[in-house]
Inverse folding.
């Protein structure tokens, strides 16, 4: 756990109730990883028969509060101001901590995005508690109401269960892509308490002058991911993968070494230190299947591996294993897909 732990335990922890989830927003919408937090937060709240309360900080919050209700949130607490339009760590942490101090939640969850990680530790320090970072399994002991926050350690080989017994709220951040987005129900409503606030200018220490998107797609949103590893042998191998991804309407992913050698940008990296994806179809081409990669794709619906080594570890995790050279198998796949689509054959350079 990180954060400043007060040596003195929280007074009367039994008085702390409900599960809080901080909702990250972008351009007027709740980000997907925060919807995932609503899903796991609701599960936990139901186990102890408590409420799921979502925190929104930003501007023009009503539509997002409505959205949170559709996904299963029982109540939204919001701090609203034009000064809070874009994410700013200090005021966002200030209002989240203020809600904690007023409402005394037992549990507080945040998605472990860049902003979420930034925010969680500051909220923990302000609330004099700790935070278990980057959890992949979250549960609750229903009798003691203790959060069972599990996170991978030792290069993903072991799960450590971390308990915060003496301080409240029990905070955790959760790895994006691991938990499922719950089904939204039109017409499902929630209680809303959105307050117009005047932000202390001392809290606004940065000015955002604009946004430039780094990538035009988010690999975690794709239904089909075609990933390449060191087995591609060269940067140009990714062009072949691009062609396959294009035929299938998917995007290209990569193992970390393929990124490290500079064949493709880091935004494409799948795995422990990259993105966690759960597409309908994941194709792993020239990827050996080490634990740090597997953790980022094992929840895909269907996994196809292409590997020249018949004993490659990835075979264990695959629904279909093509034991072949990538440069023989992929052009064949592309040709077959084009035939199925009724397109004429095109020469594929390898
Ligand atoms: C702390 C930490 C974090 C990490 N995070 C990540 C992460 O986020 N993502 C990640 O991917 N890795 C991560 N790694 C690295 C990970 O341990 C592995 O080293 C990496 O996943 C292996 O990448 P690879 O499968 O591309 O390469 P290799 O292990 O070298 O495998 C290449 C595969 O290609 C096959 N091959 C070779 N030539 C061909 C061919 N012509 N046709 C078909 N198959 C061929 C080989 O049989 C082999 O199985 C991390 C490691 C550490 C220690």
């Amino acid at each position: 756990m990180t954060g400043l732990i007060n040596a003195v335990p929280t007074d009367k922890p039994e008085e702390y109730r409900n599960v809080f989830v901080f909702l990250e927003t972008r351009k007027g919408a709740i980000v997907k990883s925060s919807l995932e937090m609503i899903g796991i937060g609701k599960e936990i709240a139901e186990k102890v028969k408590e409420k799921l309360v979502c925190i929104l900080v930003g501007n023009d919050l009503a539509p997002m509060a409505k959205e949170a209700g559709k996904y299963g949130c029982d109540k939204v607490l919001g701090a609203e101001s034009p000064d809070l339009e874009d994410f700013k760590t200090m005021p966002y942490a200030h209002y989240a901590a203020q809600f904690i101090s007023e409402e005394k939640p037992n549990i507080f969850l945040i998605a472990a995005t860049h902003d979420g990680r930034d925010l969680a530790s500051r909220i923990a320090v302000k609330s004099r508690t700790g935070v278990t970072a980057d959890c992949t399994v979250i549960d609750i002991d229903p009798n003691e109401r203790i959060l069972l926050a599990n996170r991978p350690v030792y290069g993903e080989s072991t799960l450590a269960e971390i308990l915060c017994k003496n301080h409240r709220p029990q905070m955790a951040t959760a790895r994006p892509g691991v938990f499922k987005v719950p089904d939204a129900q039109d017409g499902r409503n929630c209680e809303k308490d959105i307050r117009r606030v005047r932000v202390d200018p001392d809290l606004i220490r940065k000015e955002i002058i604009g946004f430039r998107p780094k990538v035009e797609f988010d690999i975690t949103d794709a239904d089909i991911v075609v990933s390449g590893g060191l087995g591609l042998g060269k940067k140009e191998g990714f062009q072949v993968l691009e062609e396959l991804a294009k035929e299938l309407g998917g995007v290209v992913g990569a193992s970390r070494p393929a990124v490290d050698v500079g064949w493709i940008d880091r935004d494409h990296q799948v795995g422990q230190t990259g993105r966690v994806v759960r597409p309908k179809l994941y194709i792993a081409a020239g990827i050996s299947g080490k634990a740090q990669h597997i953790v980022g794709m094992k929840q895909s619906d269907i996994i196809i591996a292409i590997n020249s080594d018949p004993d490659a570890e990835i075979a264990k995790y695959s629904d279909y294993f093509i034991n072949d050279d990538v440069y023989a198998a992929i052009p064949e796949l592309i040709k077959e897909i084009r035939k199925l689509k009724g397109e004429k054959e095109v020469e594929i350079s390898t």
Notes: The pocket of flavin-adenine dinucleotide is lined by residues 155, 229-231, 233, 255-258, 269, 271-274, 286-288, 290, 292-293, 296, 306-309, 312, 325-326 (CB under 6 Å).
